[in-house]
Design goal:
The protein is of the alpha/beta class. The chain contains 13 helices and 14 strands. It folds into 2 domains: about 130 residues, 3-Layer(aba) Sandwich (Rossmann fold), CATH 3.40.50; about 180 residues, Methylesterase CheB, C-terminal domain (Rossmann fold), CATH 3.40.50.
Length: about 350
């Protein structure tokens, strides 16, 4: 029996954008746009009437802003939400707030020539809606989920020459935050690839820095890797780790995307396998697709400890699931255990 189409409700204050998005999504036989809404109050009633599977939501709307609506929605009726807003490029912190409140992912509206530009986003929009429909969504607590929580006691660790590597995509901004929150100030140097646009990686690193005892920053070319520091790949650039004398350094590259991504988790993991080997431990977290799976296998073959986030705690079990299918993971663990296992002693050979 054929699977029924994904039911989508489009919420945006622009009539043009509502019409364009409805057309772009409706062209895919696997998606049915069941309704549109021009503001959150209308959206609230249509959610009750139409029971959509996925909501696309603009941040900037009349009568109630999108974040306030999202906060209420995720507390009272959790469902997959894809943020679609002109603010997602200029206001990266707003989008990160939305992801912290439970939005699955985001897509930016073009800045100019909305009709033609948004049409070019059609395939990506369809793909992200389909991802969102399969995502795991949790009810948030009544408190503001975007507020910085108090740091809990860190996992004890004494620094040795170790290197940690983390890769993630959909759902990864919050998963990485949760991992770094548990890290002690003297944790090994940590390199991170999150699939994220160029405008977002700096604000993302700043947000992680506020949530972590480690010093978190956007990586720069030729930067030495230091214990107690974490380095986020800039959006739109590959991050590699190479050995330079007695230390590791970051190398940034503008070469072609790998598995459609730049930065690519595979690119990072392959470099860590080549230059750190058994001194490394790596974790592949939630995300759509298979970027990072082959790289994690290279790390395991090089003697590194390798982890994959388990399906139950992943928003999308694509990347870690692909790694498990390849036999690339020494351990498959829930998100709350990733930090502790990253800091565990290297595996014996």
């Amino acid at each position: 029996m054929a699977r029924r189409p994904i039911r989508v409700l489009v919420v945006d204050d622009s009539a043009l954008v509502r019409a364009l998005m409805s057309e772009l999504l409706g062209d895919d036989p696997g998606i049915e746009v069941v309704g549109t809404a021009s503001d959150p109050y209308i959206a609230r009633e249509k959610i009750k009437q139409l029971a959509p599977d996925v909501l696309t939501l603009d941040v900037e709307m009349p009568r109630m802003d999108g974040l306030t609506f999202l906060r209420n929605l995720m507390r009272l009726r959790p469902m997959p939400v894809l943020m679609v807003s002109s603010l997602t490029e200029a206001g990266a912190s707003v989008t990160l707030d939305a992801l912290a409140l439970g939005a699955v992912d985001f897509i930016a509206k073009p800045k100019i020539d909305v009709a033609r530009g948004l049409a070019g986003y059609g395939p990506m929009l369809v793909e992200k809606v389909k991802q969102a429909a399969n995502a795991r969504v949790a009810r948030i607590a009544p408190a503001d989920a975007a507020a910085t929580p108090p740091l809990q006691g860190p996992i004890g660790y004494r620094t040795t020459e170790r290197l940690l590597a983390i890769g993630a995509s959909t759902g990864g901004t919050e998963a990485i935050r949760e991992v770094l929150e548990q890290m002690p100030a003297d944790a090994p140097a940590t390199v991170i690839v999150q699939h994220i646009p160029a405008a977002f990686s700096g604000p993302f690193a700043e947000r992680l820095d506020r949530h972590s005892r480690m010093t978190v920053m956007e990586a720069t070319d030729q930067q030495p890797l230091l214990a107690g520091h974490a380095y986020v790949a800039p959006g739109g650039r590959h991050l590699r780790v190479v050995r330079s004398g007695a230390r590791w350094i970051c190398r940034l590259g503008d070469d072609d995307p790998v598995r459609r991504h730049r930065p690519s988790v595979d690119v990072l993991f392959e470099s860590v396998a080549a230059h750190a080997g058994r001194n490394a431990t790596a974790a592949l977290l939630t995300g759509m697709g298979d970027d990072g799976a082959a790289g994690l296998l290279s790390l395991r073959r090089a003697g590194a400890r390798t982890l994959a986030q388990d399906e139950a705690s992943s928003v999308i079990w694509g990347m870690p699931g692909a790694a498990v299918a390849l036999g690339a993971a020494d351990e498959v663990v829930p998100l709350e255990q990733v930090a502790r296992r990253l800091l565990a002693a290297p595996r014996e050979r």
